[in-house]
Amino acid sequence: METKINVHELIRQYVEKSTMTEKGAIKDDTLIFDEGLLDSMGLLFLVEFIKDNFDVEADDDELIKENFESINSISSFVNNKLAAKA
Q: How far is 59 from 42, CA to CA, in rounded Å?
């Protein structure tokens, strides 16, 4: 199981790579969809990344802005799902 730090860092790396953004340019609380860094297709790829890397699936009712709006919120979502599985 990934630690909280690893989850956060892996998500940060994924968002930076998928948005082709310089390392450190996106803050943990940057609203990645509001800023236009990711779109709906980007969300689908992000959900797939989470499933592949953390064995966490997002249910349809969990695909809400609050769970995916920033690196912090994505990390919290993944960590909460991992904790629920433990």
A: 17
- Are 71 and 26 contacting, i.e. CB atoms less than 8 angstroms apart? yes
Question: Which ranges constitute the DSSP H helices of the chain?
Answer: 4-18, 40-54, 65-68, 71-85
SS3 assignment, position 44: helix
| Residue 60 burial (CB count, 10 A) | 6
Rg value, the chain, Cα:
12
pLDDT digits (tens, 9 = 90+) for 28-73: 999 999 999 999 999 999 999 999 999 999 999 999 999 999 999 9
